[in-house]
Amino acid sequence: MRMIVSILLVLSASLSASFFPSTVHTTIKRIEGKTLRLSKPFPVTGMSGIVVHRYGKTIDAALGYLVQRNDKGEAVLIRGKITPHEALPDIKTSPSEGDKVIGGYLYGNVMVLAPDETTYKKIVSRYRKTWFHPDLLAAYLSQEGDAYPTRKTLKAFAKQYQIGLFYIVRRNDAVLYDPISERIVAKKPFRNPPEKTRYPFYMRLKKIEAGLFGDEGDGDYYRLMEQFQ
Predict the structure, then answer these.
(1) Beta strand segments in 143-225, E
(2) Nearest to 27 by CA among 17, 15, 40, 16
(3) What are the pLDDT digits (tens) for 125-170?
(4) Terminal alpha carbon distance of the chain
(5) Would you report the helix, strand and coil content of the chain in percent, each value rounded to 5?
(6) Would the CA dihedral through 189, 152, 128, 201 be positive or negative?
(7) 3-state class of 119 per DSSP?
(8) b or e along 106-123 (b: 16 or more beta carbons within 10 Å of the residue's beta carbon)?
(9) What is the per-residue pLDDT for 86?
(10) Closest CA to 162 of 127, 128, 130, 204
(11) Alpha helices in the chain (DSSP H)
């Protein structure tokens, strides 16, 4: 009996983990103009990753992000610093065949955008991830003078705080949103979503202190989250 229970627990954990795309270590097999063809495709089209170039025998540096655009492993490079910081130099090196690629870079770092506290706690207790509390996003939006998250703000925020994915609860489903590619990389049904919600999302702060012409904190949580497609 104990063996049966153990098997069921392992199977349950495996099924839960499968919602998150696996991190992939591969290389650039061929470069065709602006297209980088990977030796091993990422498991999901729309996943982002980073290109790592080796200088000499000991120095590695990330050249930038890339995004897989089809299941054949064709990707496009996105220039820009992996971690925005004035002290870090801009790397001008072009990618080369044989350069390392890490797909799903930082996918273990996740933030949940949920309609209420109960939903939030259920999600973070189910998966073994490094969870970033949405209070951090609320503080960032307040600093930027924004009343609610957008695709643009999530991308900037994710780069600054090294977040790989946003777990977003919508009206009828839950999705994993990659802020770098601005694509959904996983989706599953979400049953019985709460009708009473926090706007713009669950956080422990009472409200986001937005700019002079920002919202007063009233709005439709589910409608707001539909922008992340």
Answers:
(1) 165-169, 173-178, 183-189
(2) 40
(3) 999 999 999 999 999 999 999 999 999 999 999 999 999 999 999 9
(4) 44
(5) 25, 30, 50
(6) negative
(7) helix
(8) bbebbbbbbbbeebbeeb
(9) 57
(10) 130
(11) 2-17, 117-126, 134-144, 151-161, 221-225
Q: What is the pLDDT of residue 50?
A: 95
Q: Which residues of the chain have pLDDT under 70?
A: 1-17, 80-81, 83-90, 211-217
Task: List the domain boundaries for the chain.
Answer: 24-103, 109-225
pLDDT score recorded for residue 79? 75
Question: Looking at residue 12, what is its pLDDT?
Answer: 39
Strands 100-103 and 165-169: unpaired
Residue type, 73: G
**What does DSSP assign to residue 38?**
E
- Cis peptide before 189, with omega less than 30 degrees from 0? no
Which amino acid is it at 100?
Answer: K
CATH fold of 109-225 reads: Rossmann fold (3.40.50)
**Neighbouring-strand partners of residue 74:** 37
